[in-house]
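Input chain follows. Return structure tokens only.
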Amino acid sequence: MVKIGMLLDMSGLYADVTGRGSATAAQMAIDDFGGKVLGKKIELVVVDHQNKADIAASKAREWFDTGHVDAILDVAASAPALAVLDVAKQKNRIVVFSGPGSERITNDLCTPVSVHYAYDTYALANTTARAWCSVAARPGSS
């Protein structure tokens, strides 16, 4: 069996963008894929981290230690993601972030077991500032 864990904010600030809808989309993808990979059944487990780093880290540790979870996905919000990243690094287990924007995930805390599949705060700010500066530098701009 391949067990995928999703740590989502299902009751707080990010619930509309990563909550129940993300879990449903992941299950739909598993079902569309036939529910198996390399002949092994895919199981999805989902928990609300309530946008709290301690809950996210505790659940990640439990899943990796006793829950037989192979990878953790999503983890919206930077504080919970950074806490889960630390656990994944300690346990040498896979974590894929598609929600948090902290540039630390992409830069100084990047690990061989982590994927940051999203914008980061540096890229977002840098792109915005460069775009504004290029517009402001045009003749006739004020």
